[in-house]
Structure formats: structure tokens, C-alpha cells
Amino acid sequence: MSLLINWLRFIWAVVASAPLMSLLNLLVTLLVGLQPAAEFWSISHLINDVVMRVGAGVTWSTALLWLGVTALILLVGDLARSAQPYLTEWMRQDAELRMQERLLATAGDVPLMQMEDAEFFNRFSRAKDGLTQHVFPIVSGFTRITQNLLVIGSLLIVLASTNWLAMLVIAVSVLPAWWFKKGVSQRITWLWRVQTEEQRRAAYLAQLVTERKSAQEIRLFGLQQELLRRWRDVTYGPLSKRLAIVRTAGFCDAASGTIGALSYGVAVALLATAAAAGRLTVGAFAAAVRVTQDFQNAMSELVWSLSSMHRNAGFTIDFWRFLDEASIGTAAQVESVLTNLDTVPAARVTFDNVTFTYPGRDRPALEQVSFQVQPGHLVALVGENGAGKSTLVKLLMGLYPPSNGQVSVDGVQPDSETGLQVRRRIAPVFQDFLRYSMTAGENIGVGAVEAFGDLNRIEAAAAASGANQVVERLPAGYDTTLGKEWRDGAELSGGQWQKLAIARAYMRDAHLLILDEPTAALDPIAELDVFRQFKQLVAGRTGFLISHRLGAARLADTILVLQSGRLVETGTHAELLARNGEYAKLFRTQAEWYQ
Amino acid sequence: MSSHIHAERRPSWWRSLWNPLTSPLPHLTWTISMAYRACPIELVVHLAGLVLRRVGPVVCLYLLKSVIQVVTAGGSGAELQAPLIVLVVTLTITEVGTAFAKNFDTRIEEKLAPYIHTLILDKAASLPAAAFEDPNTHNLIERANRNSKTVHELMGDIFFTAAIFVQAFSTLLLLATTSLSIAGLALVAAIPIAWTGTRQGKRMHGLEKEHSPSRRLTDYLGRLLSGRESATELRGFQLRQFFLERWRQAFTLRKAEFLRGRFLGTREGWLACLAANTLFGLALLLIVDRAFRGLISTGEIIVLISAVRILQTALTQAAGSLGFIWQYGLPVADLRHFLEMPVDNEESPGTHSFPDKLMHTIRFEDVHFTYPGAAEPVLKGLSLELRAGEKIALVGVNGAGKSTLIKLLLCFYRPTSGRITVDGVDLQEINPASLRDNLSCVFQDFLRYELTLFDNVALGRVGAGHPVVESVCQATGLSDLVNSLPTGYDTQLGKAFSGGVGLSGGQWQRIALARAFARDAQVLILDEPTAALDPLAELEVFGRFIELVLDKTAIIISHRLGSARLADRVVVLSDGRLAETGSHHELMAKNGIYAELFRMQAQWYEDADVAAAKEGLL
Q1: DSSP β-bridge partners for residue A383
Q2: B231-259 pLDDT, tens per residue?
């Protein structure tokens, strides 16, 4: 039942997204669907005329009239039929646009927390693949179901007058087929859901073999054959399960085909008996024999489309479930409402007893962290890998909600609905910043969506960050397309991309800046460059800096030392060295290299 | 001369039909042979089912004629029995054939996809590492991957078309037994339909091919919106709405392209339909005329009308499938092109094997190297000697040629000129397997396999069992990590699959180290391993590494110059050449590039009063 509801909900969404096209489609479907009945009517007249003419004196002109009518009916039906692909394509495109948009909007809006979960991607890829692979069948399936219902309905009406029993026999004969198909498609949907992870695993292994990123390591270790072997295991295992279902389905199809053939035989026998007994005109009998096959085809096609509707409806369940369960985010509503931002030059940051645990983990990543940062101060976050530095920064940006306690930036909780006004004024330079396959200017422009096309502001940001030196060397300057995604995309070095990422932060009218030191290897000169640019960028505003080079922490007004999720030390470089605690230990270890 | 050029510019149309780049026809036999190799039995059954499905209705029509004749002649039920039984049997065979055709098609689809995919992966695996630096290879693989399914689709269309031709032929035969002129008319009607179908296929191919820019743009933006890698930044910069808008624009553009293609097709389709229906109208006229003249019986009238209709439907379908052959034939050409691409495998078979024990040196002799397609050489006459058992630190700014040197040593590339020798034997003459066994490397961007911990280590030496993995893990200090994981060695790592445990950069790094040590190599390379490590972890990795390579030859690349002091010798590369070499102290005393880089980093850790000067620097 929920299957039907989900399917109807989907169809309704399609119709709502293209009402005019749906209407036209319905009209054309009507013409195509009523054609067989009309054909029966005109052909039976035509034949009767011709047959009677042999006996009595019917003129050529009446025969010609029926001939013309028959030809016209055939022509109109054919014309309507050849317009169907166009109309269906239109509906499909509109539906895909609307559905994909909802899906992507939701995926883009899902809280980051949910994305930490592998199950999220399982569900997303099920919903998305289901959509791309099944939208068309659903749209065209709907049209086909309507059409076949029309064919069956209209033929039943005109044929019932010839011999209702024959029609009943045929109508009943499709029931077993319907029942078989339903069972098979349920099992296929279930298998698809169960096998999503295996399929993703196969895709992952295939990716290892074919991607540039892994090419060297795999060849060094000679792993090609081993990975292929594993790929075969995860591919062929599920395959044999699917084939077993297909085999069962084959027998069911053959059985229902046989039943159909027998019932056709019975129907023809009944019609023939009636005609022989004179209860049926010759024309009606001949035409009935002809369209009975249309009738039967329509019946089995109906069963076929109903069963694929059944299967496709299974995918609509995945689709709606993803949308219904994932849309907890609120970014969409707020983004459109928000107009003006406050203009405090530097942010005040407060962490009040903040604890944060990743979903599905026992141990918190941050535990009872409290501190305050004055406007205009530069804070360095220091600690071992996994101490919670990146998590803290993500809480600060409102990407994760604290499990306990409160984060506030200028008195606003950044993860709340109103948090957007502070989130908009945070300029982050991410550790794994994105390398957009877009133009150089756009790569900088994304830093401030509202000024995306503002070349003056982009140039200013580039000049301030030193990214202009990178851009100047590109063949088409700011209009040069970057990245390997496109054939003519220019490729940049890691250091050059880093400069664009910093320029991105310059685009924002920020009161809080964050630099998460990149993982990419930077030589000492490039490294100094990054810190110099960040220091310039911060000037007068509040800044957070994560760096593994403790020397850089000396630049900060305050150093926060984290150790397995807890804030263990706070102070300036000198204070912390004097204290001789965790920071002093880390600093001396690193300094030792350079004594 | 000019006539020759003219001939080249305008190849005759029949020659262009056999051009593998513009026509699908040369790929049809290839497609069928692929399907036959993947699943021969299924293929034969499918084809047989298709033919039954198509010929059955024509035979039934013929049988119906006798049924109708009996009825119009006022025959009894007993007379009807024989033709009815034959009719039902024929129909049953047809229906079972149809069921089998559909069913075996699904089986072929299921079996063919992994078969083609295996070929693609095998091919990709056989390409040398250097091929992957070429974006062109990347495009080819991507296209081959996307087109792997079209083999099945094309096969289906070829068979479908063939079966329809069989049907059309048998229907024509049936018509011809009654009236040759009607058969001729029906045949002529086929021409416009086939013509428009082919044209539409070509048009839709142009729209649907994967490298159509609008499609790639929508795909890329979709990935940005939904991908894990982009999730953080998208939210940090509040870019969702913006990219969604762009996606919508790109999609709308694509939609318009598609609809235009369909519109043109429909317009042509209508013209063809009008032409064909006029001819069918004429055929009907002929039938009625003959009936009037008493040349044909009532049964024959209905059979003729039905036959003409069957023929018309079949031809329309044939036009569609001919179109699909054009639509799918060319993507299959892409796939075939990739699979049949000659592998430019530079690996020579190698007559020598790596020395059992490296005795003397690995020597770079005036090595020059330019990446294929690049204008500037990266190495410009590098000469360098690594002595057996020596630990070398390789230092230089980004782009100095450090990683390239490693790639040449690992035989991913050949020097453009000059040579590399191992105890006097040219590296190119050593057989690749023995070379792999003796060289190991932790790459800068090492892989984080989304597999179990055991696999992550054991992949360093395919076939390694538990004893090897456990001893390696112990040696590289992974035991604590193993013990802390829920299911020890069998724990799934990474977040991509359910049950997976996410690890920190340092933990992954240690696993990569263990993987490199899983093989008993004589030469070990550690390429910039510390980027994601905190100072303590860094110290540990280096300490561990030095300890583990005590009796081996080792190369360390690091931007943390402090670590260079652990090496026996520092080698400084600059602009593709050897700039300086010597111990840390010698190079500091020399006051060259190394000393400059070292001081630049050391100042981060100088005393407070010196730091004041540094503030000025920043």
C-alpha cells in the first residue's frame, strides 16, 4: 500500500512539475488508446459492406467512405504515436529537473554530521541512482498504463456486444501473470537494497585500478591482479543471486504466456461458434478476431507495466525516504530571508563547557571545552593528531551542533537558524580546500556568493593574497578554466591552488578567520608565504590558526592546547613555555631538530 | 593533385558507412562477438526466442484465415477444431519464445556488464604508471567505463532489427501469395520510415554522448552538491543555493538541447508517417477493390489488412531500432578504441635481476628528463651516487625534481637521456618483478584503502599471511592500534563502508609505513611523510623508519629540514640538478641553499628576542 502511495506521490510530483505537458500527453494517449476500438468499429463496417456487396447491391461509395474512415483512424493513431517520444521526453526532463533538484538541494542541506555516516551515502546513492535509472520508466510507464487501460476499456465495451464470455476468459487469463510478476519484482527491489554496499565496494575497487591517484602505488606493489580478483568476488557473488531470480522469472513468464495462448484459443473458438450460429456478423467476427490480439497484447503489456511500476515504485520509496529523513537542515529558508549583516569588525568567541561526540562513537571528540576569545585576537590551536582541533573549528563554523554546552560568536550560536548571520562572516581556509573545476576568477569568487561575478572585488582579493601572480601566468587570466575535469583545463601546483584558496577567504567581509594548515607538502619558502598571507588577512580581526609547526603558534595572542578532546593549557607562548607542560614538551621536541 | 584532395574531402557515402569513426556498422560484429564470448548459450536462446516471437504472429495470421473461411462458409464446430488447435499451439510457442527472449536478455545484460567491465579493468591495469599522467588516458577510461553498458544495448538493437526484418520478410511473403502489388506498396512505404529513424538516432547520439559539455557540467555540479569531499567547504561558504542555481541553469540548457532534438525528430517522423500512411491507404484501396471483384475471400481481406498493419508496425519499430544502432554504435566505438589501444609498455622484459645484495652503488649518470607533452625538462643532467646501505635525505624547494627522481628510480618513467645503474647494471635491463621486490616506497599521497587493517598491510606483499603482517605491525608500532580496534586486524578502515572505523592522518601514515615494510626490499623510499603529522608523531615515524632501515639503503624526502640531520648524507636538488651534497654540518658550514632553507625554518624556534626580528619578517 505504501508502495502505491509513494508511486502516486511521485506521479503527482511529475504532473505538478509539468502540468501543460501532462495534459497534452494525456490527450495524445487518449488518441492512441482509443484507436483499436475505433479500428474495430470501422473495419467491421468495411468488411460487412464488402461482403454484403457480394450478395446485395452496395455501392462503391459507402465502401469508400468506410475505407476513408479506417485510413483516417489509422493515420491519426500513428501521428499521435509518433508524437509520444517528444512529449514524454519533455515530461521526463521536467520531472528529472525537479526531482534531481530536490535531491541535490537536500544533499547540500543535510547537516555535516549526517554525512559522517556511511549509511547516508548508501541511501543517497540509492535515491539518486533510482532516480536517474527509473524516472523515465516511471513517466513512460504511467503513460503506458493509462494507454493500455484505455485500450482495454474501450475494446471491452465494443467487444462485449460480440461475445462477453470470450473477453472475460482473456481478462481473467492475465491474473496469474500479474501475481508472478509482483513476487519477482518485490524480490528484485529487496535484492537491490541489500546489494547497494556490495556494488559500492566493487565500484571502489574498480576506481583503485583505474584512477590516476592510485596508479603509482598499485604498480609499485604489483596489486593489479589482486585488486581485480577482489573486484570479481564482489561483482560475481551478488550476480549469481540476481540470476537465480531472473531464472525463476523466466519460468513464470513462460507459464503465463502459455495460459495466455490457451485463453486466446478459447476466445476465438467462442467467437467462431457465435459467428457460425449467426449471432455475429462476418465483419464483426473478422474484426473481433483481429483486435482480440490487440486486446490480449494490451492486457499483457498492462501486466508488464504494472509490474515494472511495482519495481520502480520500490525505488520511489528510497527516493522519498531519503528526502523525508534527510531534510532536517534549515539553511534553505534562512538563506533567502537574510538580507543585511551586522558590521562588527571582529568577532568575540565563547565556548562554554562544550562537549561533542561524533554519531556512533563512544568517546567524545571534544570534552567540556571552555574559553573566550577577545575581538581582534589571534588564537592558535595546538595538539596532537586527533586531539580535536579540526572538530573545534567545525563547531565554531556551525557545521556541527555541540552535544552539550554552548558555542557563541558575538552572542549568536553559529549552528542555530539565526547563526547564518555570523556564518556568513567567517572566512575559512580549509585543510582540504576544494579545487573547483571552474575558471580562476570563479575559484576566488565562490568565497562570497553575492559578489561572485564582481571582477573588481575578485581582483582586489587576488591582489591582497598574492593570487594575482598565479592568475597572471594563466593563458586567459581570470577566465582560464582550471582542473582536469575539462579538456582544456589548466593544471596548477599545490602551492598555486593554496593561494587561490586564501584569496577566496579575502573575498569575504569577515570578522572571523580560520586557517587549517594544509596537508599538502609545502617547502619552507611556500610555508612562510602562507603564514605571512594569513597574518595579513587577519589584521584587526579575530583569527584561528591550526598549524603543526609550533613556531607559528608564537604569532598568536592566545594558544589553546588540546589533548584527546580536552583543553589542557591556555596562554601565550612565553607563559606556556614557562609552565613547562604539554606545549613546552611539544615545542622542545620540534625545536630540537633545529638546534 | 587537386582532384586527389577533392576525393579525400568527400568520401563516397558507402565508404563513410564503413568508417569506424563515423559509422557504427564496423562495430556490429565486434559487439556480437563480445556478447557471444560472455554468454554464448544465452545469446543463442535469446535470438531463437526473438525469431519465434516475430514469426509466430505471421503464422497465426495465416491460420486465422482458414478459421475465418470455415466460419464464413458456415462450417461446423468439428471443422474448426483442427485449425484452432494448430493456432493455439503456434501461439503457445510464440508466447514461450517471447518469455524466453525477454528473460535471456536480462541474463545477458547481467553477465555481459561484468564481462566488459573486467576487460576495461584488465586493460587499465596493464597500462604503465606514466600513462596515467596523461589526462587523455583518463578521459578514455572514463568514457569506456560509461559506455560499458551500451554493448548490451547495441546487441539488443541489432538482434531486434534482425528479428523485425525476419518478420517483415515473412509478412511480405504472406502478402505476396495474395497480391504482389500490395506487397510492393508496403515495401516502398518502408523507405521514409527507415530514413527518419536513422537520422533521429544520429541526432540523439550527439545529445546523449557523455562528453557533451552541458551533461558534464550538470554531473560535476551535482557531485559538488552531494559529495563528501565538498560537503565541508560548501557549508562553510554557504554555497549550496549558489551551486543549486548553477546546476539548474546547466540542466535547463541540457533540457532545451534534448527537446530540440526530439522536436526535429517528431517533425520528420510525422512527414514519414504521412507518406507511409498514404501508401497504406492505397494498399487498402487495392484490397477492397479485389474484394469487390471477388478475387479474394473475406478471410483474405482480414488477413491482408492485418498483414499490412503488422508490416507497418514492424517497420516503425525497425526505424526506431536502426536509430538506436546509430545512437549506441558510436559510444561502443569509444569503448572498443580503448580496449584495442596498443599498450605502450616501456617495461622491457629485462634479462638481469636485481642483485641479491646491493654491494656498491645506485648511480644516476647525467640524467635528463622531460614529462611527455611538457615544454620544460624537470631533470637537467642529474648525476648522483647512492652507496649501498647509505641513508640519504633529499632536499629542495617544490618543483626541484625530487619526486621525479623517485619516479625514475621506481621505473615509472625512463630517463629522456642518461641512465641509472644498480651495481653497474642499467635499471632498464633489470626485470620488473625483481625490481619491484627490491624497491619499496611510502608515497607522499599514499593510499588509504577502504579495506580491513590486515589488507591494508598485506597489500604491500600480495599473499602475505598473518605471521608476516603481525610481525610487520609489531615492528612499525601498530600493535597498540590493532588492539584498540573493535575486531583487531579484521576491522574495516575508512568511513565509506558500513562498520568502517575512521583513523587519523598519523595512524594512516603508520599503516602506509607498515605496508612498505611488508616486502623485504633492499631500497626504501619515504616521500614527504610528515605533512599530516604532529611533531611527536613525526619524531616517531622518523625514528621508526631509521631503525627499520638499519641494514638497507634509504632515501627520505622531507620539507622539515630538521629531520635531514638523521641521514648519513643530505642531497640538495635545485632546478633539476645536484646542487649540494654532504652531511648536515658540512652543508651548514658551506652556507648555500641548504643552510638558507634550514635557517628559515629554525627561526620559528629561536629565542624570544630573536623572534621579535621575525615578527618584522612576517
Answers
A1: A562
A2: 877 777 778 888 888 889 888 888 888 88
